Amino acid sequence: MSETCLAAVKINQDLCSRCSVCYSICPFEAITREEESGKVEIDNQKCQVCGICYSACPVTAIEMAYYDYDNLNEYFNNELKNVNADTLVVMCRGNSPSSGEISDILEEQGLNVTNYIPLRVPCAGRIPTDFIFNVLNSGVKNIVSVQCEDAFCRMKEGTKIETRRLLLSKAVLKQLGYDENAVRVVKFSRKAVYVTEECVGCDKCVFICPYDAITAQPFATPSIDVDKCTGCGACQLVCPHDAIQVKGFEFNNVLDRYGCAITKLKEQKNASAVLVFSCQWSEYSGLDDPESVLKGKNAMVLEVPCFKSLDPVHVINAFRSGFDGVMGVVCSAEDCKLQEGRDVAERQLGVLLDALKKMGLLDRFEMVELSPRCENQFKPKFEAFYNKIAAMPQCTVAAKTEA
After folding, report:
1. Residue-averaged pLDDT of the chain
2. What gap in Å lies between CA 255 and CA 365, rounded to an integer?
């Protein structure tokens, strides 16, 4: 880790009681403990900012840069003022893309929830129990925790830990006179799905899947083993007919989002426009609070589920749509939540860079590796790139294509 990295998770040694709860619960073995003194410290090289240690600390000795108790309460209270809602829906980042589909997920689970406040966090396991009680005490009647299936938790143990925590909370709530069903847990993980009528049986998805989750079938659409599929999007990337896609990140869905956005951006301000494709695990502030970074800028941020699903076609098409610069934000190899198949992404990146070079657009594209372990790194990287693009003449690729 570079010397400029400001750690996003810290332990206040003056408050620490040496109980070692954080040490025993960390799924990444990122907390070390001195045998004699019991002193615990965080190894920032291993920490993945899941927040599980923070939510488990009984003396609030762990400090978080993202989604701490005060920030969660501030967000909830502000939303409660603006929305007449009786339900809070807490969603893990891995199963809830920023484009929505929350109602669809709940309906699939047999829950009819219409008025709700969405709260999107990197891991369900980072929600402190006292926040749950505070929400119910505010008048909200229900809390639904949409968690990844246990085997697909990007933070290893996050969903298991939060499920146990919520079960304990329900027991306490019942004693306090609350409805024991006021807190519900929904297990859900995004998977690849087929549009079977578009499939031509080329089997590229079979060969590219890094998790062996797709099997070729004679004279039929390949089958997906949902028990193996992680929803990484590698199969979607290579499908020539968009016949296999990850819900929420469908090709046309993403295409329409930045296509509509560029029209509005150019209408509002005749200035250079920048599009950022960000892996949903590499950057938090730009995805969950874009106004904090993009305010006053002619830009937008779109997320992808993994580096493996950063489609080169979208980068090229973004320029043709009218964007003047495109930035890719991805995890480093050691931070990647879906390690298998990263070589696929790197080959795709090589193809993209070669295409951009031939089109004379290489200086308008930038790929950066970021980690939420390092606080406040996205904003300066983005602003440097944005200022670089703003100083260049506006891109003429769109005009050439139309001509």
Report:
1. 88
2. 18
Residues 17 and 139 in one domain: no
- Token couple for 258: 């930045």
Domain encompassing residue 364 = 251-402
Nearest to 105, CA basis, from 89, 121, 84 = 89
DSSP letter, residue 211: T
Based on the fold, state whether residues 211 and 261 are members of the same structural domain. no
- With contact defined as beta carbons under 8 Å apart, do 142 and 86 qualify? yes
- Domain co-membership, 310 together with 339: yes
Give CA–CA dist 181/89, Å, rounded: 14
Stated pTM of the model: 0.88
CATH number at residue 38: 3.30.70.20
Give tens-digit pLDDT for 85-108.
999 999 888 887 655 567 778 887
Four-residue CA torsion sign, 22, 162, 182, 104: positive
Q: Are residues 58 and 77 in the same domain?
A: no
How does pLDDT run across 318-351, given as a tens digit for each residue? 999 999 999 999 988 888 888 777 887 888 899 9
